[in-house]
Specification:
Blueprint lengths: L2 E6 L4 E7 L3 H18 L4 H17 L1 H12 L3 H25 L3 E2 L6 E7 L3 E5 L7 H12 L3 E5 L5 H14 L6 E3 L7 H6 L3 E7 L2 H13 L3 E5 L5 E4 L5 H13 L11 E5 L3 H12 L20 H16 L3 E4 L3 E2 L2 E2 L2 E4 L6 H4 L6 E7 L2 H9 L3 E2 L2 E4 L3 H10 L6 E2 L14 E2 L2 E2 L4 H6 L3 E7 L2
Parallel strand pairs: 5-6, 5-8, 6-7, 8-9, 10-11, 10-18, 11-16, 15-16, 18-19
Antiparallel strand pairs: 1-2, 3-4, 4-22, 9-21, 12-15, 13-14, 17-20
């Protein structure tokens, strides 16, 4: 029997094993999604919102239990896991409270007696989600998808099956009818069959560029809507008039959060030369305060990476960058899943640390001679997810932000996903938007109705 294994990254201890669904179980799931959709789409926003608010309460009442599961399966420090659970409750409440207004009929003046756009659900949405935020990535798409009247099938990453099943149980406890939210323990070879199903009308994927290419191709083949949230190599631009200490502190926070395994974590620190000495001083001061170890232990501020192959890949990117002329300023040692947070200096285009997504605790520091060079360096990337600008001149920061080719730019702030703000990228970071009003509009039928007397 084929099994997925859940393994605690810190010491490689086996947590659990999960058998893959067979053909009959998968067929039953698709049938259940179809019948669940027929019930769910007919419920009022108020009735759906009750389920979402119940889910938020379940998350908060069992925060410790779910946080332990997250940490055990993918290794983030326990405090971060607790924060992830709380954020999931927030997004449930946000869409429970706002979906009706986001999707209210939109009147249009087009010369008819009456003309308007009405927003209606489309069916089942297949979600292919990653392991790095195993609860948040799911609730981020599920809350708007369900409030819009759709149902969903979740294919989660193999190493977080426990989280996947726990989330399905949350929605069941919250009162969602059968078939509304289902966790599928399946391998990638079953994905096309699901996308091809008549009940499935869209697919959303958060993952690698390679996975994005495959899923987008399958969605196109079967004429289904797709949304992709892929990699990132976010630039953090620091100008000389910035609060340099704060910029360096947040840069490290962004880079080391979740052991650096965040698509919107700042990966390239682009610092104007006049600010470099101060920035490096505070960067060194800050990184020495981080303590790596068992993510369940108090006082630990960064944990292991999720799998040993991920740490090995990051080490290869570091070594290839060194061979190309970069300088290792700090860290970079590897022991299984544990990768010592590292700082690379003298990083330039053409090095993996500049050109590729470094999905782990590795920061690339890059010198820019002036603002225009900083903008050029930020844009010299195949990715375009997020970024930040640090300066005391907000007008200048906004002008720079408009020139940076990304889906989001935060000024003097940590880049983060927020239920109230649309989230997504451009270039090879993907397409489509999650969160905010834009997020709930991705998987609805914007139907035009025009009437004459």
């Amino acid at each position: 029997m084929a099994l997925f294994q859940s393994i605690f990254p810190f010491n490689r201890e086996l947590v659990n094993e999960y058998p893959l669904m067979d053909e009959t179980q998968l067929n039953n799931a698709l049938v259940s999604a179809e019948s669940g959709y027929e019930k769910w789409k007919r419920l009022s926003y108020k009735e759906r919102s009750t389920v979402l608010k119940n889910a938020a309460s379940i998350l908060r009442n069992n925060r410790n239990q779910y946080a332990q599961l997250i940490t055990r399966e993918m290794g983030k420090i326990f405090a971060e896991a607790e924060g992830e659970v709380e954020k999931c409750a927030w997004v449930c409440e946000y869409y429970a409270e706002n979906a009706a207004s986001f999707l209210q009929d939109e009147l249009l003046d087009a010369g008819y007696y009456k003309s308007f756009v009405t927003y209606q659900p489309i069916g089942a949405v297949l979600a292919i989600m990653p392991w790095n935020f195993p609860f948040w990535q799911v609730f981020r798409y599920a809350a708007p998808t369900l409030m819009a009247g759709n149902v969903t099938l979740l294919k989660h990453a193999p190493n977080v099956c426990g989280c996947s099943l726990a989330i399905a149980d949350i929605f069941k406890q919250a009162g969602a009818p059968d078939g509304v939210f289902q966790s599928l323990i399946i391998d990638t070879d079953a994905v096309e069959r699901i996308i091809a199903s008549n009940i499935v009308q869209a697919v959303t994927l958060t993952g690698s560029e390679r996975a994005g290419r495959s899923v987008a191709s399958l969605a196109g083949k079967h004429i289904k809507k797709s949304l992709l949230e892929l990699g990132g190599s976010d630039a953090l631009i620091v100008l000389p008039d910035a609060d340099i200490k704060k910029a360096a502190t947040v840069a490290l926070q962004s880079r080391l959060l979740n052991a650096g395994q965040s698509c919107i974590g700042s990966k390239r620190f682009i610092v104007l030369k006049e600010a470099m000495n101060d920035f490096m001083h505070y960067l060194h001061e800050g990184i020495l305060r981080y303590k790596q170890g068992n993510p369940f232990e108090a006082g630990i501020t960064t944990g292991p990476m999720a799998r040993p192959d991920l740490a090995a890949n990051l080490s290869e990117q570091l070594n290839a960058s060194l061979k190309a002329g970069a300088h290792l300023d700090f860290g970079g040692q590897v022991d299984g899943c544990n990768f010592t947070p590292a700082i690379l200096l003298n990083v330039h285009p053409g090095m993996p640390a500049f050109d590729e997504e470094t999905f782990g605790p590795l920061a690339a520091v890059i010198t820019a001679n002036d603002e225009q060079e900083a903008i050029s360096l930020a844009n010299q990337s195949q990715y375009g997810l997020g970024g930040s600008v640090w300066t005391s001149d907000i007008g200048k920061a906004i002008a720079i932000a408009k020139q940076v080719t990304t889906g989001a730019v935060f000024i003097n702030s940590l880049v983060k996903s927020d239920p109230r703000l649309p989230f997504g990228g451009v270039k090879k970071s993907g397409y489509g938007r999650e969160l905010g009003r834009h997020g709930i509009l991705e998987f609805v039928n914007a139907k035009t109705i025009a009437a004459e007397l």
